[in-house]
Amino acid sequence: MNREYSPEMRERALRMLAETRPSHPTMMSAVRHVAGLLGMSPETLRLWQRRAEVGAGVKPGLTTDAAAEIKRLQKENAELRRANEMASTGGSPPTRHAGSGSAT
Length: 104
Prior knowledge:
By secondary structure, the chain is mainly α. The protein has 2 domains: 7-61, Orthogonal Bundle (Arc Repressor Mutant, subunit A); 62-93. The chain has 4 helices and no strands. It has helices at residues 7-20, 27-38, 42-55, 64-88. Helix 1 (7-20) packs across helix 2 (27-38) and helix 2 (27-38) packs across helix 3 (42-55). It is elongated and about 70 Å long. The protein starts with 6 loop residues before the first helix and ends in a 16-residue tail after the last helix. This is Insertion element IS6110 uncharacterized 12.0 kDa protein. One of its GO terms (biological process) is DNA transposition. It holds the Pfam family HTH_Tnp_1. Residues 81-104 are annotated as: Disordered.
């Protein structure tokens, strides 16, 4: 089941996880405990915890902001490539010639 949670719920879950972590032998044990209390999937809470650690610089990885910036730059790059291609062909979109392409 795919379910969206509010930012407040995410903050609450992560706060509960941080508070309960010392009383559990492993992080996953604490995750399962808190997820059960909140009626959510342990995997959802585990992913939130992982993203929070990456965002705080505790664990290596790509932050959400950095991933969004990369996606934005890739889109901009693709748009610029299309504009350059159109400029080099005299303003018309690239065309395929009758003999080119793959044979089916």
